[in-house]
Amino acid sequence: MKDGYIKVAAATPKVKVADTVYNGQLIKALMKECTDNGAKVVVFPELCITGYTCQDLFWQDKLIAALILLQQGLFRQVHMLKRLRHHG
Predict the structure, then answer these.
(1) What are phi and psi of 2, to 5 degrees?
(2) In sequence order, which residues have a C-beta less than 8 Å from that of residue 30 and are 6 or more positions away?
(3) pLDDT at position 6, please?
(4) CA distance 12 to 57
(5) What is the pTM of this model?
(6) CA-closest candidate to residue 21, choices 45, 49, 44
């Protein structure tokens, strides 16, 4: 924090509808790029993990399971980045 401010980044991945693995990889890469450049907060568009237009797929068990796994991976990455920034 400098002069009471923190750096915030906004990122917009080019998503593929219902491809949570691909979208997750993009999100993780953008998170790392932003934090490597000093951002303490990174914001993404709503539904960028699943893709905005897959509304009829939202209730499919396969998509829900993939989304849960990806969220867990993103949470782990956030905690890892916090530890690296704190100890580095």
Answers:
(1) -125, 125
(2) 11, 13, 42, 44
(3) 93
(4) 22
(5) 0.69
(6) 49
Distance CA 57, CA 16 (A): 13
Tokens 């797929």 belong to residue: 57
Q: What is the rounded distance in angstroms from the CA atom of residue 12 to the CA atom of residue 64?
A: 22
Could you count the other beta carbons within 10 Å of the beta carbon of residue 2?
7
Cβ distance 23 to 49 under 8 Å? yes
Share of the chain above pLDDT 90, in %: 43
Distance CA 69, CA 50 (A): 12
| Cα dist from 35 to 31, 76, 81, 82, whole Å | 6, 15, 8, 10
Q: What are the backbone angles phi and psi of residue 13, rounded to the nearest 5°?
A: -75, 150
Which pairs with CB-CB distance under 8 Å and at least 24 residues apart come from 36-40?
Answer: 37/7, 37/9, 38/7, 39/7, 39/8, 39/9, 40/1, 40/6, 40/7, 40/8
Distance CA 61, CA 80 (A): 29
